[in-house]
Amino acid sequence: MNSFEQEIAEALAATGSFEKEAALKLISVPPDTSHGNFTIPCFSLAKVMRKAPKMIAEDLAAQVKLPAGLSKVEAVNGYLNFFIDRGFLAKSTLEEIAAKGLEYGYAAPNGKVVCIDFSSPNIGKELAFHHLRSTMIGNSLSRIYKAAGYKVERINHLGDWGTAFGKLIVMYLRENRPTDDATLDSLTVKELNILYAAFSKASKEEPGLEDEARAAFTKLEQGDEFYRKLWTAFRAATLKELMRIYDMMGVGFDHYTGESFFEDKIPAILDELREKNLMVKSQDLDVVMLDEFDLNPCLIRKSDGSTLYATRDLAAACYRKKEYNFDKCLYVVDLGQALHFKQVFHVLKKMGREWYKDMYHIPFGVILQLVDGKWEKGKTRTGTASLLRDVIEAAQKKILEFIDEKNPNLENKELIARQIGISALTFNDLKNSRLKDVRFDWDAVMSFEGDTGPYVQNAHVRLCSIMRKAGIERANLAAAIKDVNFAELTDDAAYSLINLLAKKGEKILGAVAGDEPSVLAQYALEIAEAAHKFIHEDRVLGSPEEKSRLFLVQATQIVLENVLDLLGLFPIRQM
Questions:
Q1: Separation CA 500–CA 491 (nearest Å)
Q2: pLDDT above 60 (res 1)
Q3: Phi-psi bin for 478: left (phi > 0), alpha (psi -120 to 50), beta?
């Protein structure tokens, strides 16, 4: 891949007129390619050189030594416009894709470790639709960071501890459910979800029920053998369903270290906070004051001795640093938890953990669903949230209807429909900045037109279809490149597509820099649009340029396949 901006800046610096860094900041891409591929204004030099910008640009155009890959430079009204040599770009880009395949654009291993904490659902509940955001943003970031050269530790910090389990235990026993081993082994998360919603309803009529739940969790935390047995069964039932959904979505984790894992590591945190005089009493609670950071006190322990989210997150952070020695630790958690993470990070700072600077909250907006004419977030505790499994099944059904109409004899059509459906849900989630709320509309999400997952998938399918018609099941670029005439790939449609392919590495690093998968989602849309245009304008099969154009089809298919994979989408080959 060529970094033309870097090379142009260096060439301008060699003239003595620009500092390299100053030139880099000024270089931009003109909206009209007739004005070049890169442009730089010379107006900032006018006072220093005591010349009109127009004259400065003309002088520099005559002096600057063009880097390899640029065909010419023009001076126009005080601007220097640089033009890429299309044949050079085609040759250098496509040769590199042929050499590196799916890993084209990947960075070399950098020796750095990143921990990514994502999904992190609560045990005892089914995955709701709103869990999609953390799961798929984290899944995509995990793949992108790996492509950027990091060693990635994917962590599912399960919510398997806390008062919620007191609620489940109270309601389970209140309904006189059997507690023998066989019954507990056959428990389903669906039953637990019903129990949780039932507790929420009952507690509104019986306020004392909340106190019972807190007392039950305190007994659980203190090691009550019977309560631990119930908790273990609740956890196992939930994990079974979670694994099924994650597998269906193509999501994996290296570690399932939930809050309970840190139970025996919390005493050391409490001891250290006491020894450093950081933990004080406030209204019967143990807290760490954070006034100097303009933050509310961080709650560490309740009056009954039970711990809180912050206590467990402090223990988890210290464990992760010791176990993985991370360079970065990301928490992919919704925007509503911003204060919590600020408090936890600043407590670590007060504890003297300088690596607190390497910890980042990766916030995101919520998925909004239309309920009674209003866009709102569903709540699992009130039973109004759509379950993720139901949404996936509905998406699969909608795509299957399309397949039955267009290609009823397609093999494995149920699986393909599900994968396209999941990809559509995921792409709708990732295509915009993660900080934006996502309004979910079935017709928009499942459309094969516009900025949707099916539109991008269709571009990939079209590329694969051309390859199949040419007798190519899987791209073999290393063998095919010898037949390519790169001069045949310099027309506008081919050049626009190749110019996009050349940006893959830059896009990966851009996504990492902002922890923003939407950078790659938008890139996928750009490739899809350019691929559709190329196929439409440049006949591939049966044309005099068939071998060269077919090679570009294969190269584009490989790049698009990998970009879809980095986003966590399934790169479908036919539909």
A1: 14
A2: no
A3: alpha
Q: In what order do the strands lie in the sheet with 151-155?
A: 151-155, 113-117, 328-332, 359-362
What b-and-e string marks burial along 333-354, b requiring 16 or more CB atoms within 10 Å of the CB? bbeeeeebbbbbbbbbebbebe
| C-alpha span between 497 and 493 (Å, rounded) | 6
Distance CA 76, CA 56 (A): 11
pTM of the model: 0.90
Spatial separation of the C-alpha atoms in residues 217 and 214, rounded to whole Å: 5
Which of 557, 406, 366 lies closest to 475 in space, CA to CA?
Answer: 557
Tokens describing residue 461: 């399918």
With CA atoms as reference, report the closest residue to 70 among 26, 8, 6, 1.
8
Angle at alpha carbon of residue 75, lines to 74 and 81, rounded to 5°: 55
Per the document, the length of the chain is 575
Amino acid identity, position 99: A
Q: Please, are residues 317 and 338 in contact by the beta-carbon 8 Å criterion? A: no
DSSP 104-139: TTPPPP-S-EEEEE---PBTTSPPBTTHHHHHHHHH
CB 405 within 8 A of CB 448: no
Q: Which residues have CB under 8 Å from 196's CB, separation 6+?
A: 124, 125, 164, 167, 168, 171, 380, 381
Instruction: Dump pLDDT digits (tens) for 468-490.
Output: 999 998 888 988 999 999 999 99
- Torsion angle (degrees, nearest 10) of CA 123, 127, 132, 136: 60
Q: What is the largest distance, in Å, between two alpha-carbon atoms of the chain?
A: 91
At 509 the pLDDT is: 97
Cα atoms in the 13 Å half-sphere on the side-chain side of 388: 25
